[in-house]
Design brief:
The protein is mainly α. It contains 8 helices and 2 strands. The chain has a two-stranded antiparallel ribbon. Helix 2 packs parallel to helix 8 and helix 4 packs antiparallel against helix 8. The longest helix is centred in the middle third of the chain and has 23 residues. Pfam families: DinB_2 (PF12867). InterPro entries: DinB-like (IPR024775), DinB/YfiT-like (IPR034660). This is DinB family protein.
Length: 172
């Protein structure tokens, strides 16, 4: 058996891809979005301000983090699928969360935004030419395909759903 030495970036990507429960990642995109909406629809405004520990994001901040990250990933997918060869920058998720003012917004507005961003991702990915999704670009200094970024949206969302179920909901 040959041992493959994975880079830190490959390990980071694989960590999220491992969360996708089936090969049909486009269906899992829809499923993870529906599950996120279901969980957040049952929260009160007060509950949405809960953070499970000091220095951790509130549920509102986490929801906006999902939307922000998905938007960044959407742009990368679009750029690479269209053949853009420009290197795209990374983004600082902590800075984005700190500057989001999510806790000042209503839960319903954050949930509406999440649903619209997810619908946009679904349309982008479901209508993309399969060969265009194979296009590779460079984001944050790493080569990655448009399709893999689409899968990262799914795995990232499921990763945070797991955290919500393990660390937030039991304490509410």
């Amino acid at each position: 058996m040959t041992h493959i030495n994975m880079t830190d970036f490959q390990k980071y990507v694989q960590r999220y891809l491992d969360h996708i429960p089936s090969e049909n990642w486009l269906e899992e995109l829809k499923n993870s979005g529906d599950k996120t909406v279901d969980i957040y629809s049952k929260l009160s405004e007060e509950q949405s301000l809960f953070a499970y520990a000091e220095g951790k994001w509130t549920l509102k901040e986490l929801l906006l983090h999902l939307s922000d990250t998905e938007r960044v990933f959407q742009y990368r997918i679009l750029a690479f699928a269209r053949g853009d060869q420009n290197e795209l920058p990374g983004f600082d998720e902590e800075l984005y969360a700190d500057q989001s003012f999510a806790n000042e917004r209503s839960l319903s507005s954050l949930l509406e935004e999440y649903q619209l961003v997810r619908k946009s991702s679904q349309i982008l990915l479901e209508t993309a030419n399969s060969s265009a999704l194979k296009n590779i670009g460079i984001a944050n200094g790493n080569q990655i395909s448009a399709e893999t970024i689409g899968k990262l949206i799914v795995g990232h969302n499921i990763h945070h759903l797991n955290i919500i179920e393990e660390r937030y909901l039991p304490k509410l």
